[in-house]
Specification:
The chain has about 230 residues and is an alpha/beta fold. Among the domains are: about 25 residues; about 120 residues, Glutaredoxin (3-Layer(aba) Sandwich), CATH 3.40.30. Helices cover about 30% and strands about 15% of the residues. The chain has a seven-stranded mixed beta sheet with strand order 2-1-5-4-3-6-7. The longest helix is centred in the N-terminal third of the chain and has 29 residues. The chain is globular. The mean pLDDT is about 95.
């Protein structure tokens, strides 16, 4: 068994930072202190990822039913293809919506750029309540060519994952499933619901899987409080 190496304290690593020409002492001290916090955060994220991978076997899932672009009915196990892990994203583009959710669209646009790489390791599916033809038409409009879409054949999946609200609106969801012999088990899904959000913040996962927000978090203005991505500008 490999031995864990003793990690240097974050401030000690942060002290190795190279100053940028022209920065004053106040900035240097503040940036070095922040770098120590960033190193601690990186280590926390690594520990959380290790804990996630060590989750015990999750619940056995139903044989949820889906339809592909040809109208053929598929079972949950069919979505795995040659892989043993499935990453499935349910996006807010039900038949009652004229256009899909802008935030789902933003997230899927970033995933599309990485989808070919992701699919070397795991199966990747986008699930919607609208027919596949409708989902693919919007994908073509956005220039997405690497995403695979399926439609829910019924609302069992959406009900069990709490994706449908009483008013008919939808909630997005990312779920990861594993094959376990002939069974499919839930490995992980986001459980950070709206009632778990901190004051003044939208509900979100940690780490944030949306590239948009992760990049804006690096900026002086941050995410802002009154802006969301749009489908058109």
């Amino acid at each position: 068994m490999a031995l864990r190496q003793t990690l240097l304290a974050a401030p000690a690593l942060a002290s190795r930072r190279r100053a940028f020409p022209g920065e004053d002492d106040n900035y240097s001290r503040a940036r070095k202190a922040l770098l120590g916090e960033e190193i601690d955060l990186r280590r926390k994220m690594t520990r959380v990822a290790e804990q996630r991978r060590a989750l015990p076997p999750g619940p056995v899932m139903k044989d949820y039913r889906f339809r592909d672009g040809n109208g053929a009915e598929l079972g949950l196990a069919d979505l795995f293809g040659e892989h043993h892990t499935l990453v499935a994203y349910f996006w807010m583009y039900g038949p009652e919506r004229e256009r899909p959710c802008p935030m789902c669209t933003n997230w899927l646009g970033a995933v599309n750029g990485n989808a070919t790489d992701i699919k070397q390791r795991v199966a990747l599916k986008v699930i919607g309540r609208s027919p596949v033809e409708r989902q693919k038409a919007f994908a073509q409009e956005r220039g997405w060519g690497a995403l695979d879409f399926v439609q829910l054949a019924d609302d069992d999946y959406a009900t069990d994952f709490h994706l449908l609200n009483k008013d008919g609106s939808e909630n997005p969801a990312l779920a990861v499933c594993r094959r376990d012999g002939d069974m499919v088990r839930l490995f992980w899904t986001s459980n950070m619901t709206a009632d778990m959000a901190d004051p003044g913040q939208d509900p979100r996962d940690a780490p944030d899987i949306a590239a948009l927000w992760s990049i804006l978090d690096l900026t002086p203005g941050g995410r802002g409080t009154d802006w969301y991505p749009a489908l058109e500008y």
